Amino acid sequence: MNPAPLSIFDAHLHIIDERFPLVANAGYLPPQFTADAYRAAVAPLGVCGGAIVSGSFQALDQSYLRDALDRLGATFVGVTQLPRNAEDAEIRDLDRCGVRAVRFNLRRGGSEGIEALEEMAERVHALVGWDAEFYADARELGDLVPRLRALPQIVIDHLGLSAEGLPTVLELVAAGAKVKATGFGRIAFDVPAALRAIADTDPHALLFGTDLPSTRAPRPFAATDVALVVNALGEERARLALYDNAVALYRPRELAAG
């Protein structure tokens, strides 16, 4: 099919600005990718908002995220990483700045145990309504499914990263989890089939994102990834994945789900 242009809320992007602290992860430091570079990269796509996600290389720094939210504006939200001892006042202030989620990086060196993650996920949801996002290979989450299902709202990054993990992803989706339709260049399995399986389980679960600048991905984001989503899902369900689902979840200061 020839997909019609659709509105896009980019549910997963990174801003890397060397004016702010960066921490090497396994010896890796990403190249700079500023807010201006991001705007130029997505201009042909008609992106109207998005979620700026803190990466492993940004550790617990909030200064870059505050600056990026200010530069990109009120249609963008933040997904941050927080220490266990973050104060309620800081969390509320970040929420006022547009932060809408806390992220746990289990794939690249998360140091906290599951009890600490549960405590933080429940705390931020009760305090400001944030979701909890997990960067992990879903095939390694099987034993944690009962505990993840019990959390108020979770999001799994990059389709769960593995074919072996897809049954776990679908089990979590059936319990209310959201899934990032992102990082297709990181995934060595049938992406269209995975998208359809998730949308068949819950059409409101998928959140499309560019994953720009695609740090460490074997293949970076390409504009054809948008057409892949539309072709896999059809226009009605693609509209949910590309825009409505993420806007409903993240509640940007501007924009509304259609």
Detailed description of the structure:
This protein is an alpha/beta fold. The chain has one domain (8-250): TIM Barrel, CATH 3.20.20.140. Helix content is 36%, strand content 16%. The protein contains nine helices and eight strands. It has helices at 35-42, 63-72, 88-97, 114-128, 145-149, 166-174, 191-201, 224-233, 235-250; strands spanning 8-13, 47-53, 76-80, 99-105, 131-135, 154-156, 178-181, 206-208. An eight-stranded parallel beta sheet has the order 1-2-3-4-5-6-7-8. Helix 6 packs parallel to helix 7 (191-201), helix 7 (191-201) crosses helix 8 and helix 8 crosses helix 9 (235-250). The chain is globular, with a radius of gyration of 17 Å. The mean pLDDT is 92.
Short description:
It contains 9 helices and 8 strands. It is an alpha/beta fold.
For the residues shown, what is the average pLDDT? Answer: 92
The CATH superfamily name is Metal-dependent hydrolases
Helix content: 25-40%
Based on helices, strands and strand pairing, what is the structural class?
Answer: alpha/beta
CATH architecture: Alpha-Beta Barrel
User: What is the highest CATH level, the class?
Assistant: Alpha Beta
Name the poorly predicted regions: none
Q: What is the element string, with H for helices and E for strands?
A: EHEHEHEHEHEHEHEHH
**Shape descriptor:** globular
